[in-house]
Automatic annotation (TrEMBL):
<dbReference type="Pfam" id="PF01189">
    <property type="entry name" value="Methyltr_RsmB-F"/>
</dbReference>
<dbReference type="InterPro" id="IPR049560">
    <property type="entry name" value="MeTrfase_RsmB-F_NOP2_cat"/>
</dbReference>
<dbReference type="Pfam" id="PF01029">
    <property type="entry name" value="NusB"/>
</dbReference>
<keyword id="KW-0698">rRNA processing</keyword>
<protein>
    <recommendedName>
        <fullName>16S rRNA (cytosine(967)-C(5))-methyltransferase</fullName>
        <ecNumber>2.1.1.176</ecNumber>
    </recommendedName>
</protein>
<dbReference type="GO" id="GO:0003723">
    <property type="term" value="F:RNA binding"/>
</dbReference>
<keyword id="KW-0808">Transferase</keyword>
<feature type="binding site">
    <location>
        <begin position="289"/>
        <end position="295"/>
    </location>
    <ligand>
        <name>S-adenosyl-L-methionine</name>
    </ligand>
</feature>
<dbReference type="Pfam" id="PF22458">
    <property type="entry name" value="RsmF-B_ferredox"/>
</dbReference>
<dbReference type="GO" id="GO:0006355">
    <property type="term" value="P:regulation of DNA-templated transcription"/>
</dbReference>
<feature type="compositionally biased region" description="Polar residues">
    <location>
        <begin position="10"/>
        <end position="27"/>
    </location>
</feature>
<dbReference type="InterPro" id="IPR023267">
    <property type="entry name" value="RCMT"/>
</dbReference>
<dbReference type="InterPro" id="IPR018314">
    <property type="entry name" value="RsmB/NOL1/NOP2-like_CS"/>
</dbReference>
<dbReference type="InterPro" id="IPR004573">
    <property type="entry name" value="rRNA_ssu_MeTfrase_B"/>
</dbReference>
<keyword id="KW-0489">Methyltransferase</keyword>
<dbReference type="InterPro" id="IPR001678">
    <property type="entry name" value="MeTrfase_RsmB-F_NOP2_dom"/>
</dbReference>
<feature type="active site" description="Nucleophile">
    <location>
        <position position="409"/>
    </location>
</feature>
Amino acid sequence: MQPAFPVSIVPSSSAPRGSAQRGSRNSPPRRQAPALPPQDSLAYAMLQAAQLVAGVLEGANLTDAYEKLLKAQPGWSDATRGAVRDLAWSTLRDYGRGDAVLSQLVPRLPPPFIHGLLLVALCRLAQRPEQAHTVVDQAVSAAAALMPGLKGMVNGVLRNVLRQTDAVRGWQAEDEESRYAHPRWWIAEVRAAHPQNWEAVLAAGCSHPPMSLRINRRRAEAQAEAARLAAAGLPGRLLAHGALLLERPVAVGRLPGYAEGRLSVQDAGAQWAARLLAPRAGERVLDACAAPGGKTAHLLESADIDLLALELDPQRAARIQSNLERLGLRARVKTADCRDVDGWWDGRPFDRILADVPCSASGVVRRHPDIKWLRRKEDIATFAEQQAAILDALWRTLAPGGTMLYVTCSVFDAENGAQVERFLARHMDAERLPIDGRPAFQLLPNAEHDGFYYALLRKSA
Ligand SMILES: C[S@@+](CC[C@H](N)C(=O)[O-])C[C@H]1O[C@@H](n2cnc3c(N)ncnc32)[C@H](O)[C@@H]1O
């Protein structure tokens, strides 16, 4: 799968000098800071990606940091935005691979920017070995712009890597974290939960994610919409449950029909939620952890229901409203902690509840590769506690005979099967309804969809 924006960025020496270059002929003479490379150069994209990677190494959220950067750089071309994104995301997907090499070649941990830059360069060298010398030159230019005193070190390390390709392969193969590009504890969790498929799950976690669309059946017909997109150069395949899997990802702004609310971007795995909960016209439905509202909207597209959407984070709650407006849908949206039932519930029970709980996001790690670097094993128990509290609180608000769909985008058992087992042990009035003949529906990430877990729980009448 190709990245959304193929990186077609030129080396800095052949690029025209861009507006990012500091100083001008008319400026008064002063001590010159080293010039930034031109914006359309690989060196510039590497420099920006290195800063994003360095931020993550110090604990920053990648998506937030990237969005902040885009706001600060409104003049970037699509190519520059795409190149920076692709370099940063690819580098972070490669967890452990660069560090297996650096631990052999660099005696002391370099400053975060240089550490990030070396990781970006190593990832790019692995992706484009035929451009090895350009990659090294561009990495050195990036270092020269921000930390000129360390450009010789960057040059030396990367040239060493080029001279020792067999040794590099050996170091990476020896080390489990490098071989599977995931933290060791994570590998162990996946291996225990999915003994037959653990290597495929880890490989999917390092791949480029697919892009799927959800057709708004109130405004468009699936086959006709797929044909319209194909005619516009965006071919795709309709999957059995109605999701349209695009052959190639595309920027949302280039999707015809998006602004008109005929379609939304939603992973094919996430599109099972509305089908499995299957609300009927007139029912009272609660979407308890709703932002940004993808599943809320799908539920409303599928039936005329009375829906309450809850969300803890007020900024994220605002995104639900704007998504619903684009799609021509209506729901009551409330900012609330769904565990604080007395604070938001009017006492009228719900026929159906969607509990799409906060989780480790280990099933969508290829979209958020910073979580491989930031999560700790202990976080899983914290998520599991939070999930149990949410399930117990919501159960009070479900009508006798009603159903609750428990959803995570995790591949860890503590958040999935083990969580549901513990819930069933605590609630004698709960039974698990089989999904397609199985006790639960675990979708493992692959080329069609991300990783999700679904369990359907029914309250005794
Ligand atoms: C997995 S995301 C939901 C995705 C959403 N269902 C969708 O399909 O677009 C979980 C959401 O739950 C929210 N959340 C976390 N704890 C919550 C709580 N106690 N009450 C309500 N919302 C909560 C998070 O802020 C986050 O937006």
